[in-house]
Design brief:
Number of domains: 3
Strand order of the largest sheet: 1-2-3-8-7-6-4-5
Number of strands: 13
CATH class of the largest domain: Alpha Beta
Strand content: 15-25%
Shape: elongated
Radius of gyration: 22 Å
CATH superfamily of the largest domain: Bira Bifunctional Protein, Domain 2
């Protein structure tokens, strides 16, 4: 197993995963997703999607945003799933994607790339399906012989099958991102804008497959090169609002999730240590600065906590105190501009202002992950 480049030597992959998950807000013990839960959702064409759906179904409803993660087995491999529920904030997709990116990085995948697309809401999907049906009527020569019987009544199914086969005719067909409603277009653009703000490099991949009745709005995937030099799609996810709605009644509940596939058996437990530093933000600019800081801290082997899904300063400070953290680092509007943090000792209440690039060194003197 690969140890990461900085800090404590010989850290196992499992330990790295637990600390990364904690840094991005997945602080509870990962749920074990049973095989029967995977079988119950096996109508999907993608096992990573199946694992995400199972996590959504297992997650508990709560007041306000909640985060959960889970572990399931795929043959001799392991699927890790991360989900955020009850929030429409664009930071939620960024959190699950960054968590997955960090894990596949320490697992040894290289040349990582994030792919993003959207199928939009119900209105958008109706528009796209109508245009797809019109395309098949006008271009019957583009339809493979074995799909000609289903295109008149289920053009979506034919389209997905052709994508999975890498059929060259797909490139002539309509793209879902060209038929988004105004609300769906705003959702996608706000998410991409946030990705750019926090340094998540992405490319638009208009042919990502959405499972009907399962995924809506945003779709995303992570591709990378494994140790054999093979290019693989190691993670995929998106919005699972419809699944959350079915799992928890008629009340619509936003849900975003991603699942990634690891080779071999990976036995994960929650992080045992209390965080050395808990990051608190005040305002949107500070939220983005805090998010970017997380990677620097976990790579420096600092056990770090945060409350990016909360906006109240009082609630964040209380969560930081309850976490048992030794230090609370507060980033406000001024600190975000100056790239500094007010670092307060939970024990003595003494505080000082530090440059963000000095924070890891300061808090790790008395407390290592």
């Amino acid at each position: 197993m690969r140890s990461i480049e900085k800090g404590k030597q010989n850290e196992s992959l499992e330990q790295s995963i637990a600390r990364i998950a904690y840094a991005y807000g997945f602080t509870t013990q990962p749920a074990t997703i049973p095989r029967r839960a995977l079988v119950a959702t096996s109508a999907t064409t993608n096992q990573k999607t199946t694992a995400s759906v199972a996590l959504v179904n297992l997650a508990q409803s709560g007041k306000g945003p909640t985060q959960s993660w889970g572990v399931s087995r795929k043959g001799t491999g392991t699927l890790l799933s991360f989900g955020i529920f009850s929030t429409r904030h664009a930071i939620a997709p960024a959190i699950v994607i960054k968590t997955a990116l960090s894990i596949v990085d320490v697992a040894g995948f290289t040349d990582l790339s994030v792919l993003v697309s959207s199928v939009g809401d119900a209105e958008s999907r109706k528009r796209f399906t109508r245009e797809l049906g019109n395309f098949f009527k006008k271009h019957p020569e583009a339809i493979p012989e074995d799909l000609k019987q289903i295109t008149p009544h289920d053009p979506d199914s034919a389209y997905r099958t052709m994508i999975m086969r890498n059929d060259p005719g797909v490139e002539q067909m309509p793209r879902s991102i060209d038929y988004l409603s105004e609300n769906s277009r705003k959702t996608m653009l706000s998410t991409l804008s946030l990705f750019e703000s926090v340094g998540i490099a992405y490319s638009i991949q208009s042919r990502l497959i959405a499972e009907p009745g399962i995924e809506s709005e945003l779709l995303f995937a992570i591709e990378g090169t494994n140790k054999k030099g093979e290019r693989v799609r190691v993670a995929s996810g998106g919005r699972y609002d419809e699944c959350a709605k079915r799992a928890r009644g008629t009340q619509a509940e936003p849900a975003v999730a991603i699942s990634l596939e690891m080779q071999g058996r990976v036995d994960i437990d929650s992080l045992d240590d209390e965080p050395a530093c808990f990051i608190v933000h005040v305002g949107d600019a500070a939220k983005l600065r805090s998010f970017a800081l997380l990677e620097a801290l976990w790579r420096a082997q600092v056990a770090v906590g945060q409350a990016l899904m909360l906006d109240s300063l009082r609630d964040q400070v209380q969560k930081g105190t309850d976490s048992g953290s030794k230090y609370i680092a507060i980033i406000g509007q001024r600190e975000a501009l100056d790239q500094t943090a007010i670092v307060r000792s939970v024990v003595t209440q003494a505080q000082m202002t530090l440059p963000l690039d000095k924070l890891a060194q300061y808090v790790s003197r008395g407390h290592r992950a």
